[in-house]
Amino acid sequence: MRFARALVQESVNGRRSAEFESIERAALARGLVCDRFTMKHLLRGRVPLDRDALVAGDIPTMHTAMRQLGVQAPAPDDYPEILRPWLHRRVWRSTLGEAVGRAASGEALFVKPAGALKRFAGFVLAPGGGLMVGASRRTQVWCSEVVSWRSEFRVFVVGGEVIGKRPYRAGEEPDGDVILAAVEALGLDRAAYAIDFGVLEDGTTALVERNDGYGIGSYGLDDGAYLDVLVTRWAQLLDGG
Questions:
Q1: Does 194 score more than 90 pLDDT?
Q2: What is the structure's pLDDT at 130?
């Protein structure tokens, strides 16, 4: 392993996450020295960052660490163009204000932030519904037509290979051949990532979204496999990828 130590975020909102516990267990099992840190200390420059350490934390924390290390945070790419055949629904970029306007005209939409930081959780904007989040109407969002999911799974990919799959809406498993075809189409644009697939009400396996391989939830993935995702992507980011 490239890293000899791991800097693992201490807590978020005063609570230690299951993900941080998992990272620490796996890192210690591999002989890494583990140090905990808080976002407060990171912002004050009291965390000894260097390129020989894995940094593991939530997305705002990871972006702060990247800035301090001079690493360019990658642009989010939730819906890569090459994966659009697997969406099986309309998805487009808009603003929160435009989405509210469409809802006011009678159209139901699923809305989620389009920026690097997920400023609010995705939600269904019902016909005639008003703005339900404390965000500017100019906020860039992804909109999609509303569909019903039987299940949703997170698939973890390292080096173009699927290394694990975990449900976050349990139910029927998505078609493995469909997942493999999508992973193959993506190639190695990112060394490690998570790609979410689910089963629609009509039984079709469809792409939910793709997430970068840092600051992501594990949904109970094996400790070692989860660490592999984070280590692989962090090393690539440090190398300018």
A1: yes
A2: 65
Looking at the 3D structure of the chain, how many domains does it have? 3
Residues 225 and 154 in one domain: yes
Contact between residue 145 and residue 89 where contact means Cβ atoms under 8 Å apart: yes
**Each residue of 65-84: pLDDT tens digit?**
999 999 999 999 999 999 99
Check: pTM over 0.85? Answer yes or no.
yes
d(CA 159, CA 213): 11
Residue 187 — left, alpha, or beta (φ > 0 → left; ψ -120 to 50 → alpha)?
left
Count Cβ neighbours within 10 Å for each residue of 104-114 and write b for 16 or more, e otherwise: eeebebbbbbb
Q: Are residues 214 and 156 in the same domain?
A: yes
Distance between CA 120 and CA 105 in Å, rounded? 23
Domain that holds residue 205: 148-238
pLDDT category at 1 given cuts 50, 70, 90 is: low
Q: Please answer whether residues 191 and 232 qualify as being in contact, where contact means their C-beta atoms are separated by less than 8 angstroms.
A: yes
